[in-house]
Amino acid sequence: MAEQNNVSVSVDGETSNFSVLSWAQVQRLDNILTETIPIHGRWNFPTLEMQPRHIVKIVRRRMQAKQINVREVRLNGSAASHVLHEDTGLGYKDLDLIFCAELKGEAEFQTVKDIVLDCLLDFLPEGVNKEKITPLTLKEAYVQKMVKVCNDSDRWSLISLSNNRGKNVELKFVDSLRRQFEFSVDSFQIKLDSLLLFHECSENPMSATFHPSIVGESVYGDFSAALDHLRHRLICTRSPEEIRGGGLLKYCHLLVRGFRAASESEMKSLQRYMCSRFFIDFPDIGEQQRKMEAYLQNHFVGLEERKYDYLVTLHGVVNESTMCLMGHERRQTLGLISALALRVLAEQNVIPSTANVTCFYQPAPYVADCNFNNYYIAQVQPVYACPQHAYSAWLPCN
Q1: Which one of 214, 327, 342, 349 is at 20 to 30 Å from 333 when CA atoms are compared?
Q2: Helix axes 52-65, 23-34, angle to 10 degrees
Q3: CA–CA separation, 234 vs 262, rounded Å?
Q4: What Pfam families does UniProt report for this protein, alphabetically (predicted)?
Q5: What is the pLDDT of residue 340?
Q6: Least confidently predicted of 117-121, 172-176, 202-206, 358-362
């Protein structure tokens, strides 16, 4: 089916952040919400089969029963980008669902967490004894990570349900969030309420002439400009110093996936801000390693062959644009990236795995100076060992 043009919603002729989805886009959105996604359990726990629209319906209903007002539900991230433009070059992995709700304090955050865990019981297969399964057990079995942020500007929490193929269902509960995007191409949010209501109330299936009006928003700003960036694979952002981690890892990911800077000169300047913010947020080499390893694990499922290219690109950007580190800190980070790249090659059986390399050189026979030893040991940059670690599913952010 040919793609129809979006209808922009504007006021007094000004550019708008909003647009009404075309029929082709509505179809892609409906397919995503009605697709059955497996949530894989750890150990011997069974796989849960759930449709996104069903989990949204259950969670929303129980939140309202607990007097937590849900203003609206939105689809966010790469799935929203995929709805708006199918050939993004990125595909979509995680399914990001945002519940815009009133979260006044710790009690509301705890209630939301309890609701989500309790909802998982509804998706357990028949025959499973649910009486002895505690919320803690459900968290350990099905939740990949939990995040809670509560400060003056940001009040939100995230519960990510595990999928072995990288398509996690991420339920995000947002009262306020100052920065909701990294780059223009991932700034889209699609309001789901009209489509969800249609499925509950309509007895007739959707068609090109009979479907609800669904509105998308670019939280970056101009919707048309952001969609143009997505269609032409252009990298554009503003104020990367406001992004946790500076957007550095996502920026290098976009480069590897064939995106290019909308303005080369402007992006070279922004790269320095990205690197500065990354090292402000992750000053310790251990933190940097955990962050990079987590990014590789979460964003390259089924694309392991692209990990090396990604790390080479990251090494180049850090080497070129890092101005805020002392020399030894900069070399340490570059060494870490090189070690991760070496490990990736070893995992792909391109080269043998090795932790350290020492080179020995024998001097020429005519070297008779008594100051020379029999062998000259070349001082090489050590390869930092990168052991596997087990990290907690909780990622508290205060």
Answers
A1: 349
A2: 80
A3: 5
A4: NTP_transf_7
A5: 97
A6: 358-362
